[in-house]
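Review form for a predicted model. The reviewer records the input and the model, then writes brief findings.
Reviewer: anonymous (R2)
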Amino acid sequence: MFRAAPPSYDDQSPSTGKSRKERERASVPPCPDLSFIDKMSQDELEFYESNPEAVDDMILETAEAQSILTMSRDLLQKNEELATKILSKEEEAEAVQKKAHEKWAEMSLERDKLAGLLREQDELISRFDKTRIAEALAKEASELETGGDAMKRSFASLVGGGVKNATDIETFKRDFLQKRKEFHAVEARKEKLERV
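Model under review:
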C-alpha cells in the first residue's frame, strides 16, 4: 500500500516565490554549552537539582540561548512589521474594491440609460421607417383610388339616370374635389419620401 510521506518543513512554509533551493533554510539551533557545570560545587548542583526554574534561568543565560532569544525577538518584530504592512494593504484593497463596486453601479446605471435610449431609437426608426411610411402612403393612395372608382360609378349613375336636381351635382362635385385633393396630397408625400 502506498503511503504519502509526512510533509516536510519546506512544504509547510509559506511561498516566497523562490524555489526550495533558493529559500533560506532554518537550521536547528546549537545546544547551549554547559561545560561550566563540571566546575560547579556539590552545593550548587544540589541547588539546581531542587530548583528546576533556576536551571531554566541558568540555561537562558547562556550565549546560545541569548542568541536564540535575540533571533526570536527580531523575527517577532519582522512579523509585526509584515502584519502591519498586510493590514495596510488590506485597507487599500478594500478601498479599491469599494471604488470598483461604485464604478460598477455607475456603469449599470449608464447601461440602463443606454438601453432606454436604444429602445427609443428603435421606436423612432420604426415610426419613421421610409419603407413602412411609403407602404402606408401607397395603401392610402390605393384606398383613395378605389374611392375614386366608386365616385366615377356614382357620377355615371347620376348622369345616366338623369340629373334630378342641382344639389346632387353640387354634392357630387364637392366630394369629387375633396377626394381628388386627398389623393394628390398622398401621392405628393409618397414621391417626396421616395426621393429622400
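Findings: The CA atoms of residues 8 and 160 lie 119 Å apart.
Further findings: The chain has two domains: 35-124, 129-195.
Recommendation: see findings above.
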